[in-house]
Write a structure and sequence with these properties.
The protein is about 40% helix and about 20% strand. The protein contains 13 helices and 15 strands. β5 and β6 form a beta hairpin. α5 crosses α6. The longest helix has 17 residues. It binds iron/sulfur cluster.
Length: about 375
């Protein structure tokens, strides 16, 4: 990054910070957009055209909306906030092609997103907040706490930007990156409705997964929305005692309450729950843990996803041995529990959620910013509006 670029970035950032006080037009649904433009004297078809540009053609600015008149586009640019991301870094795994992105938001905050290619299609894991206040002990995203929640548009922008960069359709979306989605509930729901809207990318609700550390009232509320999405509960331990050691949220809601809520979610939506279970060596990977997990899973319609925990340098957790992971899985299978081991994608890049952002924040505090952006990156640094 040269000095001129830094100045330019500063100017762009200042403009965008001012813009944040304006109405965020990309977060409006079609009806809201129609009402908003009608209040400016515009006909309904204008709203349809603009919605199509934003959510179908993935326009990066009003400027690209070429079938709208120039004066109208200029008026919109003056009146509304149009969120866009800046790609700051991209790392690509040499092992499986997984790409991890570090995006800059309009106010200079950073989020991470991951693109993974599977046989059944491309999947993107997005962030829902800048940082997180949930304090899970095995997670790098929470170390500096919560900065702010993302707007629906900023969650969409991650998918839109990745679609443009890769040139490939995204078919699955997982809200499992930085942040606790249920701690940003209203924006999450708006995001899902926009993402799955037939006038936008029209991703099937069944291909959307939302994870939670277990905020019971929000899980119940989500059940009542009757969306066809998958709910993934980060369980990670089978007793309240153990769970409290890993996840502070366990001091608030017991495993019994969580299981009742999972049952409620299934009753309301008919959707099978996923239990996420990160295996931490010597902490939650014993035969006794497996027996307790079976007892929790058996009465529910659920699927258990075992995750070999990603070591992070700020924490002292280690991954379970491969043989232990397999033995744990076998035990569940023998008891007819539906179980998989999550394939470790992008192991050769900064795998664990929040690590790339933390690394960049740490590097940004170095004296030489140019040094900061290049050091340790698997791919050349980039500065690109996407
Ligand atoms: S695991 Fe999820 S909920 Fe827990 S601290 Fe990390 S981002 Fe937050």
């Amino acid at each position: 990054m040269d000095f001129t670029m830094q100045n330019l970035d500063g100017q762009i950032q200042n403009k965008n910070v001012q813009d944040r006080d304006k109405l965020d037009i990309k977060s409006l649904n079609l009806q809201e957009l129609t009402e908003e433009l009608a209040a400016q004297g515009e006909k309904a078809f204008r709203a349809k055209q603009m919605y199509e540009w934003m959510h179908g053609k993935l326009a990066r600015s009003f400027d690209e909306m070429t079938n709208l008149s120039k004066p109208f586009r200029e008026q919109c640019a003056e009146r509304y906030q149009y969120t866009a991301l800046r790609m700051l870094r991209m790392q690509e795994s040499k092992l499986d092609g997984t790409r991890k992105f570090l995006f800059g938001l309009s106010d200079g905050n950073l989020v991470e997103s991951v693109w993974m290619r599977y046989k059944h299609g491309n999947s993107v894991c997005i962030s829902s907040q800048v940082g997180c206040r949930m304090g899970c002990r095995f997670c790098a995203s929470t170390i500096d706490g919560l900065e702010r929640s993302l707007a629906p548009s900023e969650m969409l922008d991650q998918i839109y930007a990745i679609t443009r960069i890769t040139g490939e359709r995204v078919s699955n979306v997982v809200v499992m990156g930085i942040g606790e989605p249920m701690d940003n509930y209203e924006n999450l729901i708006k995001f899902i409705r926009l993402l799955t809207d037939e006038n936008g990318l029209h991703i099937s609700q069944r291909n959307v997964t939302v994870s939670t550390c277990g905020i019971v009232p929000r899980m119940r509320q989500l059940a009542e929305e009757k969306l066809q999405i998958t709910l993934a509960l980060s369980l990670h331990a089978t007793t309240d005692e153990k769970r409290k050691r890993l996840m502070p949220i366990a001091n608030r809601y017991s495993i019994r309450e969580l299981m009742e809520t999972c049952r409620y979610y299934f009753d309301c939506t008919g959707r099978r729950i996923t239990f996420e279970y990160s295996l931490v060596g010597g902490v939650n990977d014993t035969d006794e843990d497996a027996r307790e997990l079976i007892a929790l899973a058996e009465p529910l319609c659920c699927h258990v996803n075992l995750i070999p925990v990603n070591p992070i340098k700020e924490r002292d957790f280690v991954q379970s041995e491969a043989a232990r992971i397999q033995a744990f899985k076998n035990k569940l299978e023998r008891n007819k529990i539906n179980v998989t081991i999550r394939r470790e994608m992008g192991r050769d890049i900064d795998g664990a959620c929040g690590q790339l952002r933390r690394k960049n924040l740490a590097e940004a505090s170095l004296e030489d910013p140019a040094q900061a952006v290049t050091e340790g990156s698997a791919a050349p640094p980039v500065q690109e509006d996407v």
